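User: Assemble these into one structure.

Assistant: Restating your components, then the assembled model:
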Amino acid sequence: MGDAGLLDAARRGDAEAFLRLFSRFQGPIYRYAAHMCGRESGDDVVQETFLAVLRDPVRFDPARGTLGGYLFGIARHHVFKRLRSRNAEECSGGEIEEMLTTDNAVQPSVLEGLTRAETVGAVRGAIASLPAIYREVVVLCELQEMSYADAADIAQCPVGTVRSRLHRARALLVTKLAPLNPEVCTSK
Amino acid sequence: MQEPYLKDRSLSTALRAVADDESQAAASPAVGARLLIEVQAIARARRRAHLKMYAVAAGLVLAVGGAVWTVRTAGTVGPVAATTAPGSEQTTEFFALPYSSVPAAGAHLVRLEVSATALASFGLESGDSQNSDSQGGAARTVLADVIVGHDGLARAIRFVWPPSDARREEQRQ
């Protein structure tokens, strides 16, 4: 069964089709949402995304993009709605930083001799501190390993914009992680 | 040039480490459970909708079947709608006669004149206008179509007014 068939079946109440769909996409959507607006919001965004899919009478058109792009598009709508309602470009950054990296903030003195887990925490904190549009391309292209085209489809912008945002995001991350020496970055 | 390259490579490695670290991160099982309940609710709603649809379809079949049966039965014994085609004769609906319940394999229509008093026995007005005023009393007659079975028994009757009488009747109303 193709993606469109799977989605149609789930919308008709086919539990097996839904579970296949859910198990395939809930993880990536959760991670995207958690990076964008916090882990507890991750659950909510996943739920809202799939509820919207189940209740949305508009059919998914495979000719217009992938099912993943369709689902991420819905998730993104909910993510940015949350970000707007919190009126916080920084909200997720502060939230995630506080949640994950309070003690691992990128500070030269602390980063000396970090373990791999600590490095991950520091990088995660640096990502969380990025403005949302840069954070988004890092999450999609670097962490989710999507193509620029797929990321552009989700972010609703040209591929060139994704490239430039990613370039800028990486530069910001390098700056934030400057004290982290290459040996630490390549993990211990 | 080497430093930016190393920084870039280090960043990629660090990002890869983050991605690996959270590759198993997922929504809580409660989310999946809640959504599954939603899917099951959709399935139940669809089943109910299907049942309703089948019930409506069955009702339609019964209604249509009943109507067809009635019309076919009326072709021999039952009442049928009155006809009032403009410029043509006017008729009442068919009225069942005592032998209407006797099954008949076939029937034919016989037009005859009956006493105007017969109208009253079917609850119809036996007004003078419905017949020629020149005829009087019991001599007054009206036209009637009688459905007669092949067994010779009359199953139903309707009353007929020729166009001229029908026009007069309409003007009177």
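Chain A is about 75% helix and 0% strand.
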